[in-house]
Amino acid sequence: MINMKKIHHIGFLAKNLEKTAKDFESMGYERNGGGFDPIQKAEILFMNMDGVNVELVVPSEDSEVYPLLKKYRNAPYHICYEVENLEQAIEEFVKQGYALFRPAVKAVAISETARVAFLMGRNVGMVELVEL
Questions:
Q1: Range of the domain at 36
Q2: What are phi and psi of 95, to 5 degrees?
Q3: Contact 17, 54 (CB under 8 A)
Q4: Do 75 and 9 meet the contact criterion of CB atoms below 8 Å apart?
Q5: What kind and span of H or E run contains 93?
Q6: Which end of the chain is more exposed for a tag (fewer CB within 10 A), N or C?
Q7: Read out DSSP for 59-106?
């Protein structure tokens, strides 16, 4: 079994950050940081309600995930899990058949020290791992 601490956030693909954020605010979510992430090439806004974090992601046209907008439009597209050791967790996921979509990189929208990696699973879709 892969050792994960907890769910960090649900990634939500959005075409328009402000319109999507306002809809989440109407449901009781509050803005909780973010900004442009030059590594992931996306505008990011974290929203929180009762300890549940949603990451709104608006990819730029040169982002790897930009093509997903055509498929998903405005929709959840990944779950992010906190892990103690990112490299070890990646290795465990790969052993279980996941494909590495994006290797470990800094996640400046989360914190100055956070690193993330993305993997694709045949039955669960995209998974993000974060080491805080």
A1: 6-131
A2: -60, -30
A3: no
A4: no
A5: helix 86-95
A6: N
A7: E-TTSTTTTHHHHHSSEEEEEEEE-S-HHHHHHHHHHTTPEEEEEEEE
0.90 exceeded by pTM: yes
Cβ distance 90 to 100 under 8 Å? yes
105 within domain boundaries: yes
H-helix or E-strand containing 127? strand 125-131
How many domains are contained in the chain?
Answer: 1
Question: Residue 68 is part of a domain; what is its CATH number?
Answer: 3.10.180.10
Among 31, 32, 90, 102, which residue's Cα sits nearest to residue 63? 102
Tens digit of each residue's pLDDT (9 = 90 or more) over 41-96: 999 999 999 999 999 999 999 999 999 998 888 999 999 999 999 999 999 999 99
Query: Other C-beta atoms within 10 Å of 33: how many?
Result: 13
In a domain, 84, yes or no: yes
Instruction: Give the strand order in the sheet containing 52-59.
Output: 30-37, 42-49, 52-59, 6-13, 75-82, 125-131, 115-121, 99-106
Has residue 17 been placed in a domain?
Answer: yes
Cross-strand partners of 106: 115
Residue 1 belongs to a domain: no
